[in-house]
Design goal:
Elements: E1 3-7, H1 11-22, E2 28-32, H2 38-47, H3 50-53, E3 58-62, E4 73-76, H4 92-109, E5 114-117, H5 122-133, E6 140-142, H6 145-160, E7 167-168, E8 171-173, E9 179-181, E10 187-188, E11 191-192, H7 199-210, H8 212-220, H9 227-241, E12 246-255, E13 261-272, E14 275-279, H10 286-306
Parallel strand pairs: 1-2, 1-4, 2-3, 4-5, 5-6
Antiparallel strand pairs: 7-10, 8-9, 10-11, 12-13, 13-14
Helix pairs in contact: 1-2, 1-9, 4-5, 5-10, 6-7, 6-9
Length: about 300
């Protein structure tokens, strides 16, 4: 890929740029931020790492949206971060005006771009952007499930003592508190995780995963999670820029899949050069279906808040 723009040069945006540059995924990365000097400083700092990590990615930072001109992929991390005690939904009213400005400038300077949202609440933000742009759903989607799945896999590794490399977790539905853990599709070297852990221990891991972001925030106090979110975004970007056709949990607009429509929520999706190439419909049992539809109902409550903004 030639050019990727990251809007929001806070910790998530900066670390995302670092991961993308270090893995040599594109020729140019533009960092944008409303705070003068923030994006420029981050770009310069990451550029200084190039001789160490052996990459030639060009990095530019600034406040002018014109810098995103002709970007092929735009990653949005900008927005009000959570503070201790706040839910993702609590930041919605503050983040919608920010997202509106970003979308307007994206349509002006990069009308053919793919949009990848990280800003919370990501399900609602993705839905709002899809409606506002009028773009096809393959070009407007969000990151959530990769992060939740990674967190769950890491907690399973911590509990079992087995290598994280061999653990594949699958988390669908809304992000965080409303996530839907798919234990039947969670494995260690292809073996169902239920062969290694009791239901009681799995339930505790699921709850810890739901509260994963809040746990980090409570410990750090002055900062929410940024390493894992940035790495999760980079994983999705890698699938897109290399057209890998990877199946990754992604916040997608549904058009009848899983019995839901007119909603953005996490489902398994094939990611490639066109963004969301295909949505994979898993065979769910009654319990999984109930959890997924419950998660969707909670996302819809947040979507109803959009009408008041």
């Amino acid at each position: 890929m030639n050019k990727i723009t990251i809007i929001g040069a806070g910790r998530v945006g900066e670390f995302t740029a670092q991961f993308i540059a270090a893995r040599d995924m594109c020729q140019e990365i533009v960092l944008l931020d409303v705070r003068k000097g923030t994006a420029e400083g981050a770009a310069l700092d990451i550029r200084a790492v190039a001789p160490v990590f052996n990459y030639d990615t060009e990095l530019t930072g600034g406040t002018d949206y014109a810098l995103m001109l002709d970007s092929e992929l735009i990653i949005i991390t900008a927005g009000l971060p959570r503070k201790p005690g706040m839910s993702r939904s609590d930041v919605l009213s503050s983040n919608i005006p920010i997202i509106n400005g970003i979308i307007d400038n994206t349509m002006k300077y990069a009308p053919d771009a793919i949009l990848l949202f990280v800003t919370n609440p990501v399900d609602v933000i993705t839905y709002h952007a899809y409606i506002k742009t009028g773009w096809p759903r393959n070009r407007v989607f969000g990151q959530a499930g990769v992060l939740d799945s990674s967190r769950m896999a890491s907690f399973i590794a911590m509990e079992t003592g087995y290598s994280s490399i061999d653990i594949n977790a699958m988390v669908l539905g809304g992000h965080g508190d409303t996530m839907v853990p798919m234990l039947r599709y969670t494995t260690i070297s292809g073996i169902p995780v239920s062969n290694f852990l009791s239901q009681d221990k799995l339930d505790k891991i699921i709850e810890r995963t739901r509260q994963g972001g809040a746990e980090v925030l409570a410990l750090r106090q002055i900062s929410s999670a940024y390493d894992a979110p940035a790495a999760s975004v980079a994983e999705m970007v890698d699938a897109i820029v290399h057209n890998r056709q990877r199946i990754l949990p992604t916040v997608c607009m549904l058009e009848g899949e899983y019995g839901e429509e007119d909603i953005a929520i996490g489902v398994p999706a094939v990611l490639g050069k066109n963004g969301v190439e295909k949505i994979i419909e898993l065979d769910m049992n009654k319990n999984e279906q109930a959890m997924f539809h419950h998660s969707a109902s909670l996302v819809r409550r947040e979507l109803d808040l959009l009408k008041t903004l």
